Automatic annotation (TrEMBL):
Residues 740-896 form the Helicase ATP-binding domain. Residues 286-303 have a biased composition (Low complexity). This is Superfamily II DNA or RNA helicase. It comes from Aporhodopirellula rubra. Residues 286-339 are annotated as: Disordered. Residues 304-315 have a biased composition (Basic residues). It comes from the Bacteria. Keywords: ATP-binding, Helicase, Hydrolase, Nucleotide-binding. Residues 1021-1182 form the Helicase C-terminal domain. PROSITE patterns: HELICASE_ATP_BIND_1, HELICASE_CTER. CDD domains: DEXQc_arch_SWI2_SNF2, SF2_C_SNF. One of its GO terms (molecular function) is hydrolase activity.
Length: 1190
């Protein structure tokens, strides 16, 4: 059990038993009967990071097996990271509906009972550890079972052995251009492997239909082809669509043959057609020989084109002269000895006098690479991109794969190749047929015709791509491109996104940064070559990717991504929309876009409200374009921070910004349960604000009555009740009126005034108001029980307060009636919870309500079981460490207001505590503000004497410093070793070690004798305290002295006794009646000092006789110190109060003071934003020891 510290092993049985007992006790009694009828199988035990997991299989009567997990792990007091005591906590998990709703269920109860029973049978830790070891999962045995099961499944999945040899499919093509009905047929042949694996048989013809019907195909491609070719071919059109689609699928297939006697292999390709102009050398024109490259020309036959540098005629000017540009970029066009040796310019391809001179327009001239000449003649040829094939030698079939997608099939018998080329439309099909005419096969273009075709290639390119040689490619121009986002909706949901470079002249938009750097382009003005800057493209594209979060989407290729859901797609579109003109342009395929069909405003919302005893049911919808969108879909959209909501296939409606804010407020108040939206009664005011006059509302009478009651309460300002014998300050009268309004409304709340502002007297006023309605139950810490009795007798003599511990307990609960106030401690209430639950209470008051800040404790659960007409919490610190405390408080006082813990955590706790979400912080504050009233002394109690806080630092002696540093270095050495040994698996133990060392260091900072019993000397802090006490006594002052360590107070007592200094003393062991006697004695002048244990006397005491407060050691949470200070600085104090904090220099105490700022922000933010300071992690605690703060 290495997840628990060695010094805790001795109490393992007790700790584990208590944890399971708490888990069992946390279940409602309604589960008992069902749990008792369930069968629990022996669990397996596995060790996790910081605890153990018991994995159960539980089965009820005629129910399927249910998996249950009980996890046991260490737990520490969140208020006290340095707490010495440790306990174990048991958490449970189950997948059943009951557990999802209540976090408890019969399955988890039955599992807890099983563990309780088994542990009760074991005597001592030895037997218990042996029992737990027997449950531990045997990984090796599990591995054997895994292999056996895997092999069994594989054997069962293997097909039955067959006597037949392996087979495969061969596809045979028949091209018959003479047949209009069946120009193309594809037939499957089944081949068998020869014996010994030596090749395949010739094959026998089979029918595609039979292959599909008998489920004989295992290859996915063969299945697709068979499906397309299984339709009987009675004629062209629809019957032939499948054949051409199948042929395209067979591209790259390794087993395709001609369907003839020889069954020769044939290669199938899929490509595109182009119209290419092939340059032909002048002296070889008669033979139609393609032009040689420059390197070949130098070593091959001598060209008849000769360069003459002496003279330039008007027919052979340089290109720079022709277009008016710098010769250095274009070079000269060589002169020819013949009039047709070079193409100078074509001012107007349709002008017969074009050779008379250039027009001077750059677009009229074709650019030449430096040093090259234009060949005299060009051969126009149809070619296949990427494949060397002579189209004119092929059998050609024109077909269609669909009514709007023509194809052309080229079958070359000589090379045994078949090419399928997709055409854009029927016009392209007609153009290809024209180019294949035999009478154009030997056509040659002179320079004038070639230039005319090149300049007009842009009109042809939409139908068939025109590929020009460099001589005709046109001038180089700079790009005017932009980065665009190409988007295409995915089937079902989401988007495909591609980032591309766009220039209106590009035939296809290239990938940013990918070649070519020179892009041939065709336009109505002629061919050009566009110069791209690949480096700039990559830089700019990366900026777009990072700014708009494209890299957070799923990658789908080079600069391509997939938004897999509509939520992700709309999130991206929203970011692009918000960027305005700074966002790249979005390009959609024609007819495929996300369409926004109007805006959703409050006027379009219809809401229906019905009623139940404790909540209202809410339904509603909006109608857009005849489509009804449920209110719940709108709430989900705003929860996911989406502006758009789906109203049909690729159709969305935008929620107006003002309506989004109102819907967010409504979502904060509604609880979704089993597909229904519920509104707690306490949340009616906020819902009323959201569902104002511009929303169409249909509600029951109960809703209208609730609204009328709220409106009447807004003007309810009662005077001080006659039975309250006290003069209320203005803020106290406001507090009483606030309580009275909550009481009449029937919803619980928290009176969270600062300590000392009179929460008790305000509460007595409302108890007098409600006295006639039945008995009140006040649950309070033991230390303040008698104070309630005294305050009631003093200020509310009409009430009849009774201490539960001082009476016949069974009888007092039964006979309590109107005007009775039963006062009980939290401990006794939890112990006798069933007694208190036997009757209803008119009013339930929780004094120091932070006692129930942990909703999982038995005390919290017991209080929630009580039946009370109205509940009130009193706490100066309703929120100390984290928002879970606030949720636990309202779960008891106003059930349903904050919903389930899962809902509260996702909507508020995590966004606020982890991400500091200001909007969620304000939303929570807005939600709880009507139910929390908090006033601070500096705001409402101007007449209260001032309070001064001073920190006094003590410098440790050399001997003390050595002890402290030795301990600190030893702690770091041990914790560093623990960090590297075992990593996560020992995190729980490592935390225990860390907290233990922190406690030791804090004690050494106070007095070495707290750690070293043999220490005989004094301490720097004790000497500082004694000098301060002497000074205070000389000035006739009295002081409260607080410490969290009882040992420290005992050291101080010994010195005070030796010096004869009178004092009072109080710690957790002081009996209740003795506590009050000592308080009264101090108030009456007995003792100059009052030594008090911080936890035992930090609340519920009135000690205004002291005007100084001394804190001997800093506490982790400053709220606890402030509560202690308020024992003296409260109503009744007439002198200024001075607070001294004694801190040892260069010790962990200085680090603790740095934590106080965050904690104080948390308390102050209850109404202003409910910020939460982060809880300390183990590494944070270790950093304290290192004297490092983040």
């Amino acid at each position: 059990m290495d997840w628990i510290a060695e010094d805790q092993i001795g109490s393992l049985g007790l700790l584990l038993g208590e944890a399971i007992e708490r888990l069992v006790d946390s279940h409602d009694q309604e589960f008992d009967k069902r749990a008792a009828m369930m069968s629990v199988k022996t669990p397996t035990l596995t060790q996790g990071d910081d605890g153990v997991r018991f994995e159960f299989q539980v089965q009820g009567n005629r129910q399927r097996l249910q998996s249950v997990v009980i996890t046991v792990h260490p737990q520490f007091d969140q208020d006290d990271p340095g707490a010495e005591a440790m306990q174990l906590r048991a958490d449970c998990e189950c997948g059943c509906v009951s557990h999802q709703r209540d976090l408890r269920c019969p399955h988890t109860l039955a599992s807890g009972w099983w563990l309780q029973e088994q542990m009760a049978r074991r005597r001592g830790n030895g037997q218990l550890i042996e029992f737990l070891g027997g449950l531990k999962a045997d990984a090796v045995a599990a591995g054997k079972q895994f292999v056996d099961e895997l092999l069994r499944r594989a054997k069962n999945a293997r097909p039955e052995p067959s006597d037949q040899e392996p087979s495969r499919l061969q596809w045979r093509l028949r091209v018959n251009i003479a047949s209009q009905a069946t120009p193309l047929t594809i037939t499957p042949f089944e081949q068998r492997q020869r014996k010994g694996g030596k090749g395949w048989t010739k094959g026998r013809e089979v029918r595609s239909f039979d292959l599909l019907e008998q489920n004989l195909l295992t290859d996915p491609l063969d299945s697709q082809v068979a499906s397309l070719t299984s339709i009987p071919t009675h004629g062209f059109r629809e019957d032939q669509f499948g054949m051409f689609q199948a042929l395209r699928l067979l591209a790259g297939h390794e087993n395709v043959m001609w369907d003839d006697q020889n069954a020769s292999p044939v290669e199938v390709f899929s490509s595109q057609l182009s119209l290419t102009l092939q340059p032909v050398e002048v002296d070889q024109a008669a033979k139609a020989k393609p032009a040689q490259s420059k390197s070949t020309a130098k070593t091959g036959t001598k060209s008849s084109v000769k360069k003459n540098t002496k003279k330039k005629t008007s027919r052979s000017k340089s290109l720079g002269e022709l277009v008016g540009t710098d010769n250095s970029s274009a070079g000269d066009i060589a002169e020819s000895e013949t009039s047709t040796a070079t193409l100078t310019a074509v001012a107007n391809p349709t002008d017969e006098n074009a050779n008379d001179g250039p027009s001077g327009t750059p677009n009229d001239v074709l650019a030449l690479p430096p040093g090259e000449t234009i060949a005299v003649q060009f051969r126009p040829r149809l070619s296949v991109e990427g494949i060397d094939i002579d189209v004119h030698d092929c059998e050609v079939i024109f077909g269609q794969t669909s009514p709007v997608e023509p194809v052309v099939v080229l079958a070359d018998r000589k090379s045994d190749r078949v090419v399928v080329c997709t055409l854009n439309d029927s016009a392209a099909s007609g153009l290809v047929q024209f180019l294949l005419r035999d009478d154009y096969r030997d056509t040659m273009l002179d320079e004038k015709s070639a230039a005319k075709l090149a300049l007009s290639a842009g009109t042809i390119d939409p139908f068939i791509h025109v590929s020009l040689p460099p001589q005709l490619a046109g001038p180089i121009q700079p790009t005017t491109c932009e980065l665009i986002l190409q988007m295409r909706p995915r089937p079902g949901a989401g988007l495909k996104v591609a980032l591309r470079v766009h220039d209106g002249r590009f035939r296809n938009d290239p990938v940013p940064g990918q070649p070519p750097e020179l892009v041939p382009c065709l336009s109505d003005q002629g061919p050009v070559r566009v110069q791209r800057n690949l480096t700039n493209e990559l830089t700019d594209s990366q900026k777009i990717i990072e700014r708009f979060g494209l890299n957070k989407l799923s990658s789908d290729g080079d600069h391509e991504w997939v938004a897999v859901s509509d939520h992700a797609a709309l999130d991206l579109l929203g970011r692009l929309h918000d960027a305005g003109e700074e966002a790249p342009r979005i390009v959609w395929p024609e007819g495929e876009t996300f369409r926004v069909r109007g805006e959703i405003t409050p006027k379009s919302l219809r809401v229906q409200i019905d009623d139940s005893p404790d909540w209202f049911g809410v339904t509603g919808s909006v109608t857009i374009d005849g489509v009804e969108v449920p209110l719940q879909d709108l709430l989900i959209a705003v929860r996911e921070d989406r502006q758009l909501v789906r109203v049909g296939d690729r159709k969305f409606a935008k929620i107006s910004e003002a309506f989004r804010r109102r819907l967010t407020q409504l979502a904060d108040t509604l609880v979704a349960e089993k597909g229904q939206l519920k509104l707690p009664s306490a949340a009616v005011p906020m819902a009323q604000e959201v569902l104002s006059d511009d929303v169409v509302l249909e509600a029951t009478a109960a809703w209208h009555q609730a609204i009328e009651r709220l409106e009447s309460l807004s003007n309810w300002n009662p005077d001080r009740p006659d039975g309250l014998d006290a003069t209320l300050r203005d803020y106290q009268l406001d507090g009483y009126r606030w309580l009275s309004r909550l009481s009449r409304w029937g919803v619980g709340g928290v009176l969270a005034d600062d300590m000392g502002l009179g929460k008790t007297v305000q509460t007595l006023g409302i108890l007098i108001d409600r006295a006639s309605e039945g008995p009140a139950l006040v649950i309070a810490p033991t230390s303040v029980g008698e104070n309630w009795v005294r305050e009631a007798a003093k200020f509310a003599p009409s009430l009849k307060p009774v201490l539960y511990r001082d009476c016949d307990r069974d009888e007092i609960i039964k006979i309590s009636g109107p005007g009775d106030v039963l006062i009980v401690s939290y401990q006794l209430m939890q112990r006798d919870a069933k007694r208190f639950a036997t009757r209803p209470w008119s009013t339930l008051v929780l004094d120091e309500a932070q006692f129930i800040k942990n909703s999982q404790t038995k005390t919290s659960q017991a209080i929630r079981m009580l039946e009370a007409d109205w509940r009130l919490g009193l706490s100066g610190t309703p929120l100390e460490n984290h928002l879970g405390e606030l949720w636990s408080l309202f779960r008891t006082l106003s059930p349903g207001l904050l919903g389930s813990w899962q809902r509260f955590r996702s909507r508020f706790a995590e966004p606020i505590e982890r991400h500091n979400d200001a909007e969620r912080r304000e939303a929570l504050a807005r939600l709880v503000r009507p139910f929390i009233l908090r006033r601070t002394k500096d705001k409402v109690l101007k007449e209260l004497p001032p309070r001064t806080e001073i920190t006094l630092r003590a410098e440790l002696s050399d001997a003390e410093r050595k002890l402290y540093e030795d301990a600190r270095l030893a702690a770091l050495a041990e914790l560093t070793h623990a960090s590297s040994d075992g990593a996560k698996s020992h995190e729980g133990r490592r935390r225990i070690q860390t907290l233990s060392w922190l406690t030791r260091l804090r004690q050494l900072a106070c007095h070495p004798a707290l750690v070293e019993p043999t220490w005989k000397g004094t301490s720097a802090k004790l000497e500082l305290l004694l000098s301060l006490v002497d000074e205070l006594r000389d000035g006739d002052h009295r002081a409260l002295v607080f410490s969290q360590f009882v040992k420290h107070l005992n050291v101080v007592r010994e010195v005070l006794d030796r010096r004869g200094i009178p004092y009072q003393y109080l710690d957790g062991a002081t009996p209740s009646h003795e506590r009050q006697r000592r308080v009264d004695a101090f108030q009456n002048g007995e003792g100059d000092l009052f030594l008090i244990s911080l936890k035992a006397g930090g609340t519920g005491l009135n000690l205004t006789a002291a005007d100084y407060v001394l804190h001997l050691d800093p506490w982790w949470n400053p709220a606890v110190e402030d509560q202690a200070t308020d024992r003296a600085h409260r109503i009744g104090q007439e002198r200024p109060v001075t607070v001294y904090r004694l801190v040892a220099e260069r010790t962990i105490e200085e680090q603790i003071l740095q934590l106080h700022a965050d904690k104080r922000e948390l308390v102050a933010g209850v109404l202003d934003g409910t910020d939460a300071a982060a809880r300390l992690q183990t590494q944070d605690l270790i950093n304290l020891i290192k004297n490092e703060m983040a």
